[in-house]
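Weekly puzzle thread! Below is a chain. First person to post its structure in token form gets bragging rights.
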Amino acid sequence: MRAPASVATGVQRWSQTTPAPLTDYAARAKPLHASPVFPYDEHINQRLAIWQGDISTLEVDAITNTTDETLTECNSVSERIMQVAGPDLKEEIITRGLECRTGEVVVTSGFALSCRHIIHTVSPKYVDKYHTAAESSLHNCYKNVLHRARELGARSLALCTIASPRKNFPPDLSAHTALRTVRRYLELNQYPQLVIICCTSEAGPLLALAPLYFPRDAREADAARWRLKDAGGPEGQPCHHDRRIRIIHNPHSHTDNAEDETSLDDETAAEAAAAFARACSPDTQLLLPAAQPRPPLRYDTDQYERLLRRARSEDLSEVSGIGCLYQSGVDRLGRPVVVFIGKWFPITEIDLDKALLYLIKLLDPIVRGDYVIAYFHTLASSNNHPPFSWLKEVYTVLPYKYKKNLKAFYIVHPTFWTKMMTWWFTTFMAPAIKAKVHTLPGVEYLYSVMARDQLEVPAFVTEYDMTINGLHYFQPDTSNT
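Winning reply:
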């Protein structure tokens, strides 16, 4: 890896840009502020750059990756960073079991990137009803990234736009939060000496709003008094002065404002509550009731224990004798590999209740630690497709450890039907494992994660594989596996 420059070169500083022509706001209305909130400061403007392009190409000390709690989100920034960093980054995430809560940060090495560190953070989802919590949590993302960069001794930081479009953040709100937080941080801290706010696509909102927080002359600083509404707190945190305690005449009546009482799904509401709690000061957090951990999935523990006892006592030879489900060695990280042969799963001839019992009997001792599943859809037909009602029952009955400890689910030789059904199932029924599912066009792609001698598959699988992929593969692209 090339040694990155301590301060990136070739990036135009904000101080080098030309101020835009200003409107005479004084002739229109009364200013929102008596004096400029963010005064003109040439030294601070020298430490900021707004740049549009591929963040992975910058030679800086640290870059930012916006991702999800498992550090495996598929977005344009994260996918590019993963691709350029190489397989070592993905292996570190898996080996260390890295996770990150919304608003917080996790640091990894830069590996093949031209940077020393990658600072991963998780943006909150934006829901209008909980806009205060979402905005505060996004501020925490930027603040924690900046403070972590200082702790790492980074002199230059490439800061991506953390609020990705899939999180539904309004672009202007996201830009205000980023610019305000960065400005306050640079006022209070000497390092990093350069912060580059990077945009992968449209930089319009940042460029339009930057003069409010980083005026390039005294006239821009004065003009901001008419345009800047929220000056924020000492660290750039959002301030909502219009929030008041709402008093109603009848506390037991819920007829008024019924639309406001519409609740969100459990996951979004829990995330908003957690983001609000982390946004509060330490003194305020002490006054809040202790947060009770929410179980990731509601399932009937007693039902599973009953099924496990049945699985250990009943004769399941008619299912085990089929040979469609078995353990086959371990992968390169020492995790057990469970193989499922789709063609050998005869839906019309098998007792699905006993199939569930056999699944539990085989997997219960395995899922106590990390494991992976390799499903071979090779030459499977509609007679081998289990009904959705049974799949839903299986997913609901299995405890959380099955989902948590499952690190990868590989589907080999998928068909169009398989891809569509997998997308539907993981989107609407099993979102917890969506990021762990990978479709592979051939068996050879599995050898990037497990040794050949560890994978035992029927002869018809390898024969079919050779007919469609040839005797040898040129060099499989394992970046997505």
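Puzzle host: Confirmed. Bonus trivia for everyone else. Residues 131-151 form the longest helix (21 residues).
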